[in-house]
Amino acid sequence: MKKQTPNLIKRFKRSESGNASIEFVIIFPVFFFIMLSAVELGMYTVKSALLERALDVVVRDLRLTTGTPPTHSGLKTQICAETKVVPDCVNNLAIELYNIDPRAWYDLPEGVICTNRSEEVDPVTTFHNGMDNDLMIIQVCVKYTPIFDNFGLSAFLEHDTAGDTAIVARSAFVQEPT
Question: What's the total number of domains in the chain?
Answer without folding.
Answer: 1
